Every structure is written in C-alpha cells, then in structure tokens.
Amino acid sequence: MLALVMVFALCACGQKAEPAAAAPAAEAPAAEAPAAEAPADDTVYELNIYHTFPANGHEEMWFQKAAAEIAAQTDGHVVVNTAPDGVMGGEDEVNPQVYAGVLDMSLSGPSVWGGNCGVDAIGWSELPYVVDNYDEMTALSKVLPGLVNEQLEATGEADKLICIGAMSQGIRCLLTDKDHPVHTMADCKGIKVRVPSGDVYMNTMNSFGCSAQYMSSKEVITSLNNGVINGFESDPTSIIGRGQEVAFKYYITTNHIASLNLLMISTPRLAALPAEYQEIVKNVFIDFCAQEVEDRVAYEEADLQKCVDAGIEVIELTDEAFAEFKEAGTAYQQEWLKQYGCEEIVAQAKELIAAELGK
C-alpha cells in the first residue's frame, strides 16, 4: 500500500528508485514558479498529502488510485505518500504549513482553507445552499479548481497555493440523538450540534437555531454518548467511515452544504519538480478528483442504507420545512457573499453549472 504515514514535514528528494511504466499526461495550467530541470538520472521526488479523512475512506481510496497513476506516468520518479486520519494534526494546523511551503499538500474545505490562509473569499462554494443536489454538485466540481485559482491569482496568493482538484464529501445533513427528532426548523432550537472548524459550519447551524460547537470528528461518538452534544452534521459515507452510525438516531434531510473539498498543493513544492512531472501531477489529480466526485454519489446512497440498517431513522423534511431551512441558510449565504464581495463569482459559477448541465 502506498499510504505511508509520514511524520516529518519536509519531503526527501534525490532518492534512487527503479522506474515503472510510463503513460501520457493530460493538459493542465502550468505552475507559476520556475520549474526544475528534467532529471537525467533516477532521481525520485516525493509528495506527501496530509489529511484528516479516514484511512479506510473514499478520499484515501482515490488518493491511492491517483498515486499509482502518477507513479506509472512518471516512470516511478514521483512517489505520492499519504498521511490520513490527521496524524500531522487537524486542518487548522496542517493548512497553514502547506500555505507556508513547509508541507506539500492537503485536502480541506474551501472556507477552512480561506480562514487558515487569509484568503476567506475562496470559501464561497462551501456556503449553505449554493447547490443542494448531486447533479449541480458534480457540475460545480468540474469548474471549481479553475475558479479558485483565478481568485488566488487575483489576490496575489498563487505563489503560495494551487488548487489541483475538488473532492466530494457528499451533501451534508443534520444528525441527532434519540431525544431530538427534527421535523421543522423550530425543533432545532437549543440543540447542541458539533461542527468542523470554520465559521461557515458554525454560522449555518446557528442560522437554523442550533447551538453549534466546534470539536474534532474523533470526539463525536463519546460526546454524543455523554450528552455533551445532541447531534452533528455530516454525510453518510463519512459517517460509515468513522463508525458514527452507532451514536445517533435521526438523519434529517436538510441537505444544507454540498461539501467539495479542495486539494491544494504548495506552489514552491510543486515547482521543485521538473516541468513535465508538474504537469502530470496536476493533470492526474484534476482527473482523479473528478472521478471521485462522480463515484461518491453511489457510495453515499449505499452508506445511507447502511445507516438505516444500523437503526437510523431518516426524517424526510416536507417541502415547506425544507424551504424554511433553505431560506435561513441562504440568508446567511447572501450576507457572507456581500461581506467578501463574492456575488459575481457565484453568479459566474451558476452560469458554468447551467452550461455543464445543458440548461
């Protein structure tokens, strides 16, 4: 298995390895920084992806596929290692190090990247109800890396970060314990709900009337059992990957955030590779992330059934109740867009989504 949990911060370069079989690279934008010369020997370059998602999760599975393809296309000259389960720390610890060029790559939500790295405006795609179904989410995933890179260029941050893919974490719903079924937004009042880091999640849950509390995903089961929280919000595949289906009772179809996480790489770390390898790395990750998004839909459906089989009750909101949640979430969305001046890019994204869907 290629997943080698790396506990050091700097990549080792110049190691020797026997080359593997090569395949042609696809096209992708070139890196901003000057590239290293193509190697004339058997130099091996390592890239390390540090992320908080489960080692048995969907994201890690697709990272392994991409790593194998990159190894094949570079004749074994680029090795991609992964460190899942937050072994290097949470997003708030890892992302700034990628931004600073200390670590190579990480996968995280747009709003979390924005908050961690001082480019809040890139967080718009993670706002509630930008899209709320899988067709629109898939279409958005195809144009999102390009839009984010345009923002990074416009804000002078392209010399720090490059987005090389968007991975689906499904469409998030509200999940509560046996004492807190939710049928309307009024039922959310005072419910203590765990959220991941980032103001977007906190404010979205608070807009529903919940009392949002940040904590690590590793604390969810214990905190539910001890009554520290009454619920959390997530997607079925993440729930099953973390074994959380044993800890809650109700799955409420709020569909509040279509979670597309950004795979970011440090621009200087990418530019340390020879130009041909840079292109391969970018193209492979763009392609395999797009495949992950499409593949995720079936996983989400199957894993929701696993939740039901484990005793979870799905509460399908009525159209009227869903509209109430959407109105509250959209009000917060519009406030955020105005604050960060992102109305235009969201309008552009919606046009691109419509074009992708042939509307």
Keywords:
D-Maltodextrin-Binding Protein, domain 2; alpha/beta; 2 domains; 359 residues; 11 helices; 10 strands; disordered N terminus; ten-stranded mixed β-sheet
Explain what this protein looks like in three dimensions:
By secondary structure, the protein is α/β, with parallel strands linked by helices. It has 2 domains: 13-170 and 259-298, D-Maltodextrin-Binding Protein, domain 2 (3-Layer(aba) Sandwich); 171-258 and 307-356, Bacterial extracellular solute-binding protein, family 7 (D-Maltodextrin-Binding Protein, domain 2). 42% of the residues lie in helices and 19% in strands. It has helices spanning 58-73, 91-99, 110-117, 134-154, 199-207, 220-225, 236-241, 267-271, 275-309, 319-340, 343-356, and strands at residues 13-16, 43-50, 78-83, 105-108, 161-176, 192-195, 211-214, 231-234, 250-266, 313-315. Strands 1, 2, 3, 4, 5, 6, 7, 8, 9 and 10 form a 10-stranded mixed sheet that branches. Helix 4 (134-154) runs antiparallel to helix 9 (275-309). It is globular, with a radius of gyration of 20 Å.
CATH level-two architecture of the largest domain: 3-Layer(aba) Sandwich
Model regions low in confidence, pLDDT < 50 over at least 5 residues: 1-33
Helix-strand string: EEHEHEHHEEHEHEHEHHEHH
Count up the helices: 11
Please state the structural category. alpha/beta
Alpha-carbon Rg, integer: 20 Å
Overall domain count: 2
Distance between the termini: 43 Å
Strand-helix topology:
Blueprint: E1 13-16, E2 43-50, H1 58-73, E3 78-83, H2 91-99, E4 105-108, H3 110-117, H4 134-154, E5 161-176, E6 192-195, H5 199-207, E7 211-214, H6 220-225, E8 231-234, H7 236-241, E9 250-266, H8 267-271, H9 275-309, E10 313-315, H10 319-340, H11 343-356
Parallel strand pairs: 2-3, 2-4, 6-7, 6-8, 9-10
Antiparallel strand pairs: 1-2, 4-9, 5-8, 5-9
